[in-house]
Amino acid sequence: MDTIVVGQERALGALRQAAARPGHAYLLVGPRGSGVEDAAREFAAMLIGVADDERGSRLVMRSVHPDVVEFEPSGASYRVKDDVRERILPEAARAPIEGDRKVIVLFEAERLRGNQNESANAMLKTLEEPPDRTVVVLVTGAPDDLLPTITSRCQRIDLDPIADDDVRAVLVREGVSERDAAALASLAGGQLARARALAGRLGALRAVFASAPARVDGSGATALAIAHELDAVVDEAAAAVERQHREELDAFDREMERLGYSEREVQRMRRRIDERHKRETRRTRIDLLLEGVTAIESVYRDTLAAPSPALNADRPALRVAARSAAAALDACHEAREAVLINEKGLVRLLALLLAFPPAGT
User: 1 in a domain, yes or no?
Assistant: First the structure.
């Protein structure tokens, strides 16, 4: 399998060595956007022996291989009963279907907590005495939030932040112009997945949100009109995610029919995909609103950073006083916190726009 993880040669070398003589538990550590999620999937493909098999590796990378089972917390943390005891532990004990080994991947492993870290404690026995032929891979960007009793039972492999030049080079290879690739790499802050999204599905959203500060004129009517535009572009992006989910399920159904899996196994795997889609759908609008707020923040940061090179090199400089730009950034921070607590998209957007200074002042 050709690696899709960029700028992580050292970590990938360590993963290949580990896959040659696998242990029972691993901790993959990397900041968001470092490729740690895809690295975990590549590692899982190595562990179950399909790294060089086109069909098997494709299923792993699409999160639908029956011997690689991914989990995310269903709420603010992994819940002992609903997540750990009823989903993760039974799956870890279940025998592999296609090969000799099974891999359990836990994303956002730092959320193995709760009251007195009971979900982490519930996982300890599995990490200490894993079922035969099962490997557990924990993935986190905040290893210090995990219990020492968890980390001490795992072999740790760290991924590094991706250099902007590496992100830019990948975008250029994928058809983005040099100028746009350099700008997107800077905006993405070393996050390749985000840079790709900004070059594609998030491009329209970023453009509309980034244009908002220059259009604010201090009137409520203008703020309301802009808020409706921002909310509409969020709706459009969310609908694209839902279409992607439907296409993924259709592809899964065709694949399972071709391979002739038992109806019971098909239903079990389809249920996992449905659960993941539901979690992603719940998070989609929040993630999109946060992405939009990030685009606005980058515009005001460019104002404060002048005359340094702007992140939004494709947009004219915003004319507002430094004090006003700083106040706008404070308003963005408050909006970000409010969205995480209670989304209320249009209401949050209108309140945010009303807090911005008129452009040109």
Answer: no
